[in-house]
Amino acid sequence: MSLTSETEEHSERADDAKLRLENLDKHFTVNQGILSRILRGESSQYVHAVDDVTVEIAEGEAFGLAGESGCGKTTLGKTAIKLTEPTNGRIVFDGEDVTDLSGDDLKAFRREAQVIHQNPYDSINPRFTVYEWIEEPLIVHGIGTPEEREARVLETLEMAGLEPPEAYAHEYPTELSGGERQRVGIARALVLEPSFLLADEPASMLDVSIRASILDVFERLQTELGLTALYISHDLSLLKHICDRIGIMYLGELVEVGPADEIIDNPQHPYTQALVSSVPRLDPDVDRERIELVGEVPDAVDVPSGCRFHPRCPKLVPPEDVDLEQAVWRAVANLRRDLLEDDLSLTGDETHTPGEIRAEYGVPDELSDPHVEAVLSEALEAFVETEDATLDRLREALESPCERGSIPTYQATDVQRSQCLLHDPDGPYRAG
Ligand SMILES: Nc1ncnc2c1ncn2[C@@H]1O[C@H](COP(=O)(O)OP(=O)(O)OP(=O)(O)O)[C@@H](O)[C@H]1O
């Protein structure tokens, strides 16, 4: 299914959506000195923290966001509930466009959408007692008499599992353990009776022994209060445990979305497959082959063309006229990438022969495809001789379809969407 029909599908279901993000972008301007920009002749550059994300979260749903560090999870979460302004796109909450809310309307929205922070040590003001800290949002929003507020604070402490609430109310946060502080953070988020909760790495700072009990609180609250929640975490096993659906982010884009169990047990996008395979304890009974992810996540300023995962993808699609085994093609593509970027990764400082360069990249001395062999050996000879080769032929002749244009989102299975050419039902490539 193409992106167009996906949009139609969304608009049909839009009424059930608690939160709907449409083509959401959040870009940050890179903080470069004016002088350096003038000298290097560059215009402003942007960090593509979130790019063209379209997704909806249903009423009562727990949605998880996962992906490597820096891929944009926190920025997407914060933008979704307007803790930071989107660069482009629309945010629809309870059927209403909240993208440009301000003033009292924004304040009312803030009551509905609350956040639980990652760090229970930093996020609480130590000068407040637990009672004062949890009562504050009620005062800010002008809610209730002092007696009504007291009743609400104590009730909320109890909901967050701080019992007896009267005993906790007059403590200072510094006197509490990490798990207790996280429960205080939960109580503060709940006191306004929100309908949407953003929990950013809610358990990552906690001891393993405490994590399970905090996750139980989340699960219980969601069932009892019917909350819709967006959980952000590196930890796929945590998300599998508490979420209905999971979205996987890579370099600002949402590359796969589907039911939590399916994302873990039957990942479709090559990036999700690699991410899942790197977590051995996800499912001890499943003997999963570990997929090694080569290289680092690229810079979010200078994002790769086409599929952003293509420089690292173990399933990179070769050009149609290339006939090489996948592992050999990946090795050739790695060497081509570094030659084109003039950034070969070689051991030692001495000059290398074409044969030595090939060996370092795991490219065989003679490729079985004569066309690729001719293009690559010509480029290597030129590179070694002049160190400044014209590499246009290498660039054009061996360009992968994954490097071109923007990759749409496809329906990869009945329940999973994936932004990968391998899932184009009308395309020549097949997922394997
Ligand atoms: N205020 C900001 N100004 C400039 N760049 C930013 C800002 N906030 C985030 N970024 C950049 O945006 C990208 C996405 O960051 P973000 O924190 O959203 O990722 P993340 O997936 O939540 O990472 P982590 O898991 O490490 O928290 C990164 O490249 C980050 O450096």
TrEMBL record:
InterPro entries, per the entry: AAA+_ATPase, ABC_transp_ATP-bind, ABC_transporter-like_ATP-bd, ABC_transporter-like_CS, Oligopep_ABC_C, P-loop_NTPase
BP terms from Gene Ontology: peptide transport; transmembrane transport
Lineage: Archaea, Methanobacteriati, Methanobacteriota, Stenosarchaea group, Halobacteria
Name by which UniProt lists this protein: ABC-type oligopeptide transport system, ATPase component
Domain of life: Archaea
Residue ranges of domain ABC transporter in the record: 19-276
NCBIfam families reported for this sequence: oligo_HPY
Short name of one Pfam family: oligo_HPY
Sample GO molecular function, one term: ATP binding
Keyword Metal-binding: no
Keywords assigned by UniProt, alphabetized: ATP-binding, Nucleotide-binding, Transport
